[in-house]
Amino acid sequence: MNSSARATAPVAVEGIDLRSLAIGPREAFVLSRVDGTSSVPQIAAATGLDSASVVGCLAKLYQLGAIVYPGESRAGARSSTPASERSSTPASGPNALAAPGPAVSPPAERAAAPHGASTQQVTYDPRELDEEADLTLDRKHEILAAYYSLEEASHYELLKVSPRADKKAIKAAYFQVVNVFHPDRYFGKKLGSFKTKLEQVFARLTEAQDVLTRQASRDEYDAYLATKRRTSELDGLLNGESVAGEVERAQARIEQEALREPARITQPKLPSFGEPKDAEPEVRRFRPSQQNLGRLSDPELRKKALARKLRGSGAPPVRTSGPVPAVKPTPDDQAKFRESVETNFKAHYQARLVAAKEQQIRHYLDRANAAQANKDPVSAMNALKIAVQLDPDNSALAEHLEQVQLEATRGLADSYLQQAEYERREGRLERAARNYEKAALGTGGHALYDRAASCLLEANADMKRAGALSRKAVELAPERSEYRITLARIYAAAKMLNSAVMEAERAVKLAPEDETAKNWLKRIKRGEL
Question: pTM of the entire structure?
Answer without folding.
Answer: 0.53
